[in-house]
């Protein structure tokens, strides 16, 4: 099955509730989510909860308004799961303990709403990243992977690490500018 066909199949399976397709989604993507959650101080049950929330969130988004996943469905779902797990870790540190009782500071609905906004922000970021030159996308890709400047300079043929540092700064600045010019930025920033 080609990637585009596979993505359509997985997305359609999620929308229609196709049991075989949903099983395929779990078999394909859940092991990666489980590995990520375990590597970041989580347990299997927490990974299952995060995965389920992400599926619910994506289903809700698809049914509320049509949107296009610009990356693969697998990558999109995995990113949603990563973001939800990071939020969960942050939430755990923000919960207060009073008389040995944990007080929940955010409702499930608020958490789902924030997750949806976060996905929309991610979509905006990825869309605007594609508007940059190939060179800027390559530089930022390496920077986001936290590759050493020396390694980036060698891979992309720059003379010094300083040149790489300056180019990355300019590319980040350009990306920030084009994101902030988009009308969705103000809307998503206010939520």
Task: Tell me the domain tally.
Answer: 2
Largest sheet: 2 strands, antiparallel
The neighbouring-strand order within the major sheet is 1-2
What distance lies between the first and last C-alpha atoms, to the nearest angstrom?
Answer: 39 Å
Number of strands: 2
User: How much of the sequence is in beta strands?
Assistant: under 5%
Approximate shape? globular
Helices and strands, in N-to-C order? HHHHEEHHHHH
Share of helix, binned: over 70%
Unreliable stretches (pLDDT < 50, length at least 5) are none
**Distinct helical segment count:** 9
Mean pLDDT figure: 82
How would you characterize this protein structure?
- There is one protein chain.
- With 191 residues, the protein is mainly alpha-helical.
- It folds into 2 domains: 124 residues, no CATH class; 61 residues.
- It is 77% helix and 3% strand.
- The protein starts with a helix and ends with a helix.
- The mean pLDDT is 82.
């Amino acid at each position: 099955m080609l990637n585009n066909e596979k993505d359509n199949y997985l997305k359609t399976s999620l929308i229609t509730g196709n049991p075989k397709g949903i099983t395929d989604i779990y078999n394909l993507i859940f092991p990666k989510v489980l590995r990520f959650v375990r590597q970041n101080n989580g347990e299997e049950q927490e990974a299952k909860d995060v995965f389920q929330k992400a599926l619910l969130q994506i289903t809700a988004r698809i049914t509320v308004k049509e949107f296009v996943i610009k990356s693969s469905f697998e990558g999109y779902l995995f990113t949603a799961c990563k973001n939800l797990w990071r939020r969960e870790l942050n939430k755990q540190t923000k919960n207060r303990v009073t008389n040995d009782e944990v007080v929940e500071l955010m409702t499930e609905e608020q958490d789902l709403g924030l997750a949806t906004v976060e996905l929309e922000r991610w979509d905006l970021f990825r869309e605007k990243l594609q508007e940059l030159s190939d060179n800027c996308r390559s530089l930022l890709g390496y920077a986001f992977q936290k590759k050493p400047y020396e390694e980036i300079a060698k891979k992309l043929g720059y003379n010094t690490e300083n040149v790489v540092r300056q180019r990355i700064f300019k590319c980040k600045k350009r990306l920030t500018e084009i994101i902030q010019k988009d009308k969705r930025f103000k809307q998503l920033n206010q939520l």
